[in-house]
Design a protein that fits this description.
The chain is α/β, with parallel strands linked by helices and about 280 residues long. The chain is built from eleven helices and eleven strands. The strands form two sheets. A six-stranded parallel β-sheet has the order 8-7-6-9-10-11, sandwiched between helices. The protein has a five-stranded parallel β-sheet with strand order 3-2-1-5-4, with helices on both faces. The longest helix has 16 residues.
């Protein structure tokens, strides 16, 4: 009998796509997989999110809200010390919860995965699956393969919620990355994609940009993502959105610059392809 996997969706567009990719990895590994979108609205989560994807276009089914409530009750038992020892022991063949970024493979019959799963390389192996499934969600994503190559540099700056938790990337990272692309590829023009809804005053990085795409409600996440993925040169933020866009780019010989450390207050770093260029972000 096949094992069952319940994959929770957390975070915004980029995180949800990566979690779906992880679900595909589990399915290809022999699991019967169901997606849990209800976690996005969990009252205990600091920031609630909207479901950004049509789950069925990825070939998956969602669990019902009643099933979700049952799993939440089991999860509460999981954290009680008396039950926790049993749930985490090798004598538990029924149900386990897996959290975090790294996959442990001591599975039970029913397994709930509640994490971001960016440390695994499944996202690289599932590029075609993601691209085809996203195009079913939104026809504009077909343009990832058809649009004319944008020879400017795609710069992603995430500020709003990251400023609140002191995880925004400093200007020195972007200046150093722009210096690198200029000296190595003779590319100076760059376009900024940001979660800000207005351009900051007296900010040289924004002032010198060729184009600035704001989060002002003028387009949805699908269209922004499609634009971002059509560049050859990427200076990404510590964000799953630009991380995923750079991976999904169809451009040959693309160049991706990424911040290291990824976060200031955590040791986490996503799976990084070997040819990406590390830029110090402290």
């Amino acid at each position: 009998m096949k094992k069952i996997a319940i994959v929770d969706l957390l975070g915004g567009f980029g995180n949800q796509v990566i979690q779906i990719s992880f679900a595909k990895y589990l399915q290809d590994s022999g699991f019967v997989v169901r997606i849990n979108p209800h976690q996005l609205k969990n009252k205990e989560i600091e920031k609630k999110r909207n479901l950004e994807l049509n789950i069925e276009s990825f070939g998956f089914k969602s669990i019902s809200y009643l099933t979700y409530l049952i799993f939440e009750m089991i999860k509460k038992l999981f954290y009680i010390r008396l039950f926790n020892r049993f749930f985490n022991s090798r004598y538990n063949p029924i149900f386990k919860i897996f959290e975090g970024q790294h996959l442990k493979k001591d599975f039970s019959f029913i397994n709930r995965f509640t994490g971001y799963w960016q440390s695994e390389d499944h996202i690289i192996n599932n590029q075609n699956f993601i691209r085809e499934s996203l195009s079913k969600n939104n026809k504009n994503l077909n343009q990832i393969e058809k649009n004319e190559l944008n020879e400017n540099i795609m710069v992603h700056i995430r500020r709003t919620d990251y400023t609140d938790i002191s995880e925004e990337i400093n200007d020195e990272y972007y200046l150093e990355a722009l210096k690198f692309t200029k000296s190595n590829f003779e590319i100076e023009k760059y376009d900024i994609f940001t979660d800000l809804n207005t351009i900051p005053h007296n900010d040289k990085i924004f002032e010198n940009a060729n184009n600035v795409y704001l989060n002002d409600g003028s387009e949805n996440a699908f269209n922004t993502f499609s634009k971002m993925a059509n560049y050859r040169y990427f200076i990404i933020a510590n964000s799953s959105f630009s991380y995923l866009a750079s991976i999904m780019s169809m451009m040959n010989s693309k160049v991706v610059l990424y911040p290291s450390p990824w976060f200031k207050n955590s040791n986490f770093e996503p799976f990084i392809p070997k040819d990406w260029v590390r830029i110090d972000s402290l």
